[in-house]
Every structure is written in structure tokens, then in C-alpha cells.
Amino acid sequence: MVSMKDIISKSVLTLDAYNIGTVNDFQVSVDDWGVKMIGVTLNAQSKKDLGIKKLALTGLTLCIPIEHVGKVGDMVTLRIDFDHLKDLPECKNLL
Q: Is 37 within 8 Å of 28 (Cβ atoms)?
């Protein structure tokens, strides 16, 4: 097992090895206490490459379903490539 505090601020890589940003939060179900999504704050290059022009004082955070998370080690590796990020929602209720 891994503590959530050990995952916060880890870099996140897509399946095609693109560094998209850092983990900043989690969504946990109170029904089963399982993690359902991770919040990833996108870095400037990711926002540019995704064509996001929205300015956000705290950064833009995507909600990534836990099913898309592959491995957690020195970095968090996703099971999806960069192009699939366009289909994911922004996390408005996370930090």
C-alpha cells in the first residue's frame, strides 16, 4: 500500500511518456472508501499542447479515473496516451 501523502506532488506521465503535471488531490467514495479519481494539475506545456487557453490562478486540474492509473513509483504512470486527456473533465471541486 501507498499513503496518499506520498503520491501528492508526484509527476504524472502518460502512456506515451509525456509529463503532464503533478498529482494534487483524490476523490474517494465514502461507500467503499476506494479512490475513484486523482486530480492532476497540468503543467504549462500540457495546457498549451492541449490547446487550453483558460487562465487559472491555482492551475487547471483534470480528474483522471483511477482505472487510467497504471503504476505508482517515483512517478505516476497512466494507461492512456496524451491525446486521450482531451476527453477528461476538469476537476472543479478539488483543491
A: no
Residues 6+ apart with CB under 8 A from 37: 26, 27, 63, 64, 65, 66, 91
Question: For the domain bounded by 4-87, which CATH number is listed?
Answer: 2.30.30.240
Q: Give tens-digit pLDDT for 55-84.
A: 666 678 999 999 999 999 999 999 999 999
CA distance 65 to 52: 20
Domain boundaries, the chain: 4-87
Contact 9, 72 (CB under 8 A): no
